Amino acid sequence: MDDGKNGHDEWVSRTKIPLRDEKGEVEGCIGIGRGITEQKRKEQLIEKYAEELG
Questions:
Q1: 3-state secondary structure the chain
Q2: Stronger pLDDT, 7 or 44, i.e. the higher one
Q3: What predicted TM-score, i.e. pTM, was given to this entire model?
Q4: For 49, phi and psi rounded to 5 degrees?
């Protein structure tokens, strides 16, 4: 989770993998990040409702 610039928490999913040369040695990395804030908020609501029902 990152602190959002607007004062709200922002959730980010990140995936990183090493880039290797022909000898198998790491020479860099590549990464992808995507915002999942809305997904996490929905999951939290579902958990809250499940607790209230249970």
A1: CEECCCCCEECEEEEEEEEECCCCCEEEEEEEEEECHHHHHHHHHHHHHHHHHC
A2: 44
A3: 0.59
A4: -65, -35
What does the pLDDT look like over 2-35, one tens digit per residue?
Answer: 555 667 789 999 999 999 999 999 999 999 999 9
User: Total structural domains in the chain?
Assistant: 1
Query: What pLDDT, on a 0 to 100 scale, did the predictor assign at position 4?
Result: 56
With contact defined as beta carbons under 8 Å apart, do 13 and 34 qualify? Answer: yes
Residue numbers of the domain that contains 26: 2-53
* Cα distance between the two ends of the chain: 28
By the 8 A CB rule, do 4 and 11 touch? no
